[in-house]
Design goal:
The protein has seven helices and nine strands. The protein has 269 residues and is of the alpha/beta class. It has a single domain (2-268), classed as Rossmann fold. The chain has a five-stranded mixed β-barrel with strand order 5-8-7-6-9. α4 (192-201) links the parallel β7 and β8 (205-207). The protein is globular and about 50 Å long. It binds hypoxanthine. The site of hypoxanthine has 13 residues, from β5, β8 and β9.
């Protein structure tokens, strides 16, 4: 693992520098990379051992740039377990950005809304997560250079970063919702019965990413902020079937609000 990471770090270090903030942009949200100044895209294919994303709406670039006087590194698109990748591969990009020196990680995703408080188009700060993938990127021998064997997940999402994000949203004139993200394996959307189960378990939104990235980040002691874009009501909560097209369309619809929120957060860090 360290050998693969070191190879990737060596390949991008001269172009990426030491980032202050790392970001992962989810389905349909990758355009934020264009908001960076002096942006420079490194295709994942040019980074040794970096897994490629095969999903529509996930561009597959590591983008470096500046914003609000800070050095930023952005994963424009991610890989998922359902693509047949291992948990370690799914976490690889976050570990790479952590090894480059990023101490803060902002993870974003599109998610299905379960809570009755949530509507498609809402943005939600993730307060906690349910890892329901059945796996972890921390399985196997622990690499002490990355972090400790048993990772504390009590405050996986930094409360002060949630406060910053909420204040920025308020200044922009909208409410940043809050809730718990359930991360499932996918790739099928949930059944209505599964959605009822998830609600009982305490989930407010459901998606197929993020939870392993957050585990990897907390292992490395990165501070994490998670933002979900509620792209649809979860299965059974609205009439009609779910589609990836709807997910991408909603993400596009909230693009400008999402962009303003992220920029405001980077300004405030
Ligand atoms: N379920 C799972 N993942 C998702 C959803 C959903 O409803 N919407 C966007 N990603």
């Amino acid at each position: 693992m360290m050998e693969a990471l070191d190879q990737a770090v060596d390949a991008v270090r001269s172009r990426a520098g030491k980032p202050d903030v790392a970001m992962v942009l989810g389905s349909g949200l990758g355009d934020y990379a264009h908001a960076l100044e002096d942006a420079h895209a490194i295709p994942y294919a040019e980074i040794p051992r970096m897994p490629l994303s095969s999903v529509s709406g996930h561009a597959g670039n590591l983008v470096t740039g500046r914003k609000a006087g800070k050095q930023i590194i952005v994963m424009q698109g991610r890989t998922h377990l359902y693509e047949g990748r291992s948990a370690a591969e799914v976490a690889f990009g976050v570990r790479l950005m952590g090894r480059l020196g990023a101490e803060t990680l902002i993870v974003t995703n599109a998610a299905g809304g379960i809570s009755s408080e949530l509507q498609p188009g809402d943005l939600m700060a993730i307060t906690d997560q349910l890892n329901l993938t059945g796996t972890s990127c921390l399985i196997g021998p622990n690499d002490d250079l990355l972090g400790t064997r048993f990772v504390d997940m009590t405050e996986a999402f930094a409360p002060d970063l949630i406060e910053v994000a909420s204040r920025v949203a308020g200044d922009l004139g909208f409410e940043l919702k809050r809730g718990v993200y359930a991360g499932l394996l996918g790739p099928a959307y949930e059944t209505p019965a599964e959605v009822r189960m998830l609600r009982t378990l305490g989930a407010d939104v459901v998606g197929m990413s993020t939870v392993l990235e957050v585990l990897a980040a907390r292992h490395m002691k990165m501070r994490v902020l998670g933002i979900s874009c509620v792209s649809n009501l979860a299965a059974g909560l609205s009439s009609g079937p779910l589609s990836h097209q709807e997910v991408e369309e909603t993400a596009r619809r909230v693009q400008s609000r999402f962009r303003a929120l992220l920029s405001g957060i980077l300004d405030s860090l």
